[in-house]
Structure formats: C-alpha cells, structure tokens
Amino acid sequence: MGTLDGKVAFISGGARGQGRTHALRLARDGADIITFDICEQIDSAPYPLATEDDLAETVRQVESLGRKIVARKADVRDQIAVEKAFQEGLAEFGRVDIVLANAGIMPIVGPTSTRVSAWHDSIDVMLTGVVYTLEAAVPTLVEQNEGGSIVITSSVAGLKGTARSLRTNTYGLLGYTAAKHGVIGLMRSYANALSGSNIRVNTIHPTGANTQMVVNDAFLGSAEQFPELFESMSNALPVQLIEPEDVSNAIAWLVSDEARYVTGAVFPVDAGASVR
C-alpha cells in the first residue's frame, strides 16, 4: 500500500528531468498523474528543451508502474492551455490532491542570455507560469474540501544572489534569480490564503541537478569562460551535482501526510550551497 494511494498529482514540465522523476516517484507511491510540457524550443534557452517523444516516454514509464497518466503538450506561459490540460486530467480522474509547479528553463549563459527576451522568458515560465499552474488547480482543491499539498520548484538561486561579476549578471541570470526569489513570495501568499482549507504550500530549492537543464554543452561549456559563476553555485558537501531523485524524494515527503503540518516552508535540497 502506497503513501499516496488514491491521490492525483498535477505536474508542470513533466516530459523529462525533475518533472519526470517527480511523476515517477509519486506514481510509485500510488498517485495518478496529470502533466504537461511545452515540447518546443524557447529561443532564450541555449540547450534543447523536451520533445513530444520525451513526454511520451514519461507516459510509458508511469504506466509501467501500473498508474494512470494524462499528459498534454501545453506551454506554461499560456493560461488557457494550462487550464485545458488540467481540466482534461480532472475529467479523467475526478480530483486533484497535489500540485507541483516544476516547469523551468535556465537561459543564464550564452549569447541569448544577454538579450532582454531572456529576462521575459524567465519571468513568464518560472513566475507567471507558476501562478497559471496553481490557479488552474486551486479552485478544485478548495472545492473538494479535503486539503492538499502544493510544492513550487525554486532553486538555490532563490536563496542567494548567484552573479559574481557584471559579465555574468545577464538578463537571463537576472530573470532566473528574480523568478526563483519571487516564487517564495507567491508560496507565502498562497500558504496564508489556503491554510483555512488545509492546503499546504511550500517551495523546494535544489542545487544543480543531473538533468539536461544543467548537463548540456552550453552550460558546462561556459565553465572556463565564467569560473566565478560556477564558484557562486558550488556546494558545501563533496558533490558537484545532486540527482533529480534527491529532489523527488524530498517532494514525496512534503506532499505526504508525514508533513501534514509543514506549510510556508523554504525547503533546500542543495548540498549546502545556500550557506556558502
């Protein structure tokens, strides 16, 4: 018997990376999954984003665990598309219990990071997109009157400034850092507003994780050119990158009944990076 039997989780950015590992971990714990991903390129991202094949692979892996999944191609920046993806999942499962606002990009290096569009893409995906994801599901959570759990993915960059020079203080890094700080304010606002409905809201703050968002030529290839950026993101514990499953394990606890009184919390999974 799983800790999440009978539960349904709504996850943004579920085609690969942390979104996929979150879906798989919650499915192993008994949850059915509603997820969506853009499955297209965003110009300011200097690495390939997820594809429809990636989303199909998430479906395959969740189903291989004996759980059900509704997966849709949708852009988190498009409120109507996010609402449609959620409603199609709700029509299939009839409820929602968990919301993971996970979708993100990292346009912090490369020529595109110096363009103002990188700022707008960061804010649109990782701040406005969080609002769209939560607003799609919150009315159902409240109407069900059975409580629930929301976890917003921030970053160690939401706990400290990561720029260490003017040359790394690009529009992309500024937008990324501002969005990751901004979701803490969103979390606290939702935590207060939803507490009367026994809906818990927290943020999680990973350090660099072993996913395609970090492990790509554009980002890792800039280490020699911008060593100060990588120094600012270094971990205290002797590990360069955590695994996405490390973040999923923390989320699995946060959304479980074992964390039933944890709300309004800033929850680092950062190998000590935020204390350096």
Give an account of the 3D structure.
It is a single chain. This protein is of the alpha/beta class and 276 residues long. It has one domain: NAD(P)-binding Rossmann-like Domain (Rossmann fold), CATH 3.40.50.720. It has 8 helices and 7 strands. The protein has a 7-stranded parallel sheet with strand order 3-2-1-4-5-6-7, with helices on both faces. The longest helix has 29 residues, at 116-144. The N and C termini lie far apart (41 Å).
List the SSEs and their pairings.
Layout: E1 8-12, H1 17-28, E2 32-37, H2 52-64, E3 69-73, H3 79-93, E4 98-101, H4 116-144, E5 148-153, H5 171-194, E6 199-206, H6 217-220, H7 227-232, H8 244-254, E7 266-269
Parallel strand pairs: 1-2, 1-4, 2-3, 4-5, 5-6, 6-7
Helix pairs in contact: 1-8, 3-4, 4-5
Provide tags for this entry:
globular, alpha/beta, 41% helix, Rossmann fold, 7 strands, 276 residues, seven-stranded parallel sheet
Rg, alpha carbons:
18 Å
The CATH topology assignment is Rossmann fold
CATH class descriptor: Alpha Beta
User: What is the name of the CATH superfamily?
Assistant: NAD(P)-binding Rossmann-like Domain
Q: In total, how many beta strands?
A: 7
Keywords: NAD, Oxidoreductase
Organism: Mycolicibacterium anyangense
Pfam families: adh_short_C2
InterPro entries: NAD(P)-bd_dom_sf, Sc_DH/Rdtase_CS, SDR_fam, SDR_subfam_1
